[in-house]
Amino acid sequence: MRFWLRLCFCGLLLLPTGPVAVGQPALRVSNPTPTLPTDRTSRVRLRQPAARQLREFRSQREFQYVEVKSEQSGPSRFWARLWSWLDDFLATKSGQVVWEYGVYSFLVVALVFVVLKLLQVDLTRAFGRAPRRSPLLYDTAAEDIHSLDFNTLLAQAEAAGNYRLAVRLGYLAVLKQLTDHGLIRWQPEKTNHDYLRELTAGSLRPAFQEITRQFEYVWYGEQNDLSAAHYTLARDARLTLQRQIATTRRAA
Amino acid sequence: MENTSPLPASSGNEPFAPTTVSEDTAFAPRTDLSHLSQHAEAIRRELSKIIVGQQALAELLLTAILADGHVLLEGVPGVAKTLTAKLLARTLSVPFSRLQFTPDLMPSDVLGTAVFLPNKSEFEFRPGPIFASIVLIDEINRAPAKTQSALFEVMEERQITQNGTRYAMADPFVVLATQNPIEQEGTYRLPEAQLDRFLFKLHVGYPTLEEEVTILQGHHAGLGSAALESVQAVLSAETLRELRQQVRRQHVEPHLLDYIARLVGQTRAHKGLYLGASPRASLALLNGAKALAALRGRDFVTPEDVQYLAPHVLRHRILLTPEREMEGQTPDDIVQQIMQQIEVPR
């Protein structure tokens, strides 16, 4: 029984289902388009909407097509106008030329920038001297040796018996004098030994080295109890150096 | 105002008052550092029997030992990192152990482990090789993070805790670790927490041409092993502890403390840094500067000391942003930039 049912099912599947299944070509039926005669007899009636209904419609909010005024602020309007002008300009032939060359220029500049960055080239030095760092670039609390009145301050420190401070002020005065003579370049981040290395004037070097040593012992070594006699030694060394600096020819 | 000073209230160019004070007594250390200098010189002399050049490295290693800090030596293979550390340990007559870090090393291989004793029916702690005064860890970055973390407690607190029991390290306790650059094959990046525990990270570079010729001459003359045996221990643990006490008493002018804090603080604000240095770095810089000043014969710290040590203290404690890394900058470049932004106290 099951066998016969399967056979029937297969037979149904194999039955021809149309022209494709049987491989016959589709029949072409000629069906001419009917042409209707123009209706010239029917009367056309124009229907007018009711005036009352029209008024009602017009009073409804949905049918009031009023142009809303822009509530943009001044800068927004400016930018909107600018973009609009740019849009119009780029639409012109000359605008397209400008746009085209602008894109090329931008790409070239970007390429040059990337190459320079990769080569780590500092272009700021290409047009003259390297940018000089400001002596007091970052720390406003820093003491500017060029604005200090060393004579007065030293006199006050000595009078008060604060010889540690006097040694410090004397050392700063020497640094200022060396800077004024172009023998060193004052920068707050430099250490005393940086200045020592910078000082190429041979005759000044040993004397400056000695007063640097004295300053470091007194100031960094916190010698608050420095005696007057010891201070006199330091002062003598400083004044000798200052006289030497004064007679040194100013560096170019 | 009446002038009570023995000096005239002027700094002008008037004749100087005659003085009878010796200059030597005026501007000399108030602390006797000759003992320290002698020992430092003896260690340098012993090291120079084998190591050619590398004076700066020897000075920095001594600084670290005096400042009670650990040192990480980084360099390509073959530049005598291990030899230098081994020789330095040999100059100190203290217990020494050496650990070769490998990828399969376990924390218990370093610290020690509890062993069950059947006859006593209890566990007994068997100390690992870390229990020495000078521990040389060779190629520290060849072990994974799990083993590295075993060193956290011992390096910072000088103790280990096992099964609730605390085992203190000997005094002195110094870890000298060597590593190849991270770019080398088979190396791991050390965790930041561990790097922070090293006082200095020192780069060991190639010798100069003249130094290399001297190395070759020594090797050709067959001095290698004989010279190695001739290196003597010249500093005991007790003496080292005394010298460290002396270093701790060094003068530091208050403005210099501010300078150190500013330098380290700036690493946290620098745009080119992803991770700045911790307050532990400030302490390391202070301790290192005190030790360096003592080695250079001064009983006070100068900004020069701080600037000299800043790259060695900070380079392993800061992380660059990816942009700066891509630009080819190094931590040393950033530290230099920072030093150029901070006014030197004067």
TrEMBL record, chain B:
Region Disordered, residue ranges: 1-21
* Descriptive protein name: MoxR family ATPase
Where would I find the AAA+ ATPase domain in this sequence? Answer: 67-208
One Pfam family in the UniProt entry: AAA_lid_2
User: InterPro entries per the record?
Assistant: AAA+_ATPase (IPR003593), ATPase_AAA-3 (IPR011703), CbbQ/NirQ/NorQ/GpvN (IPR050764), ChlI/MoxR_AAA_lid (IPR041628), P-loop_NTPase (IPR027417)
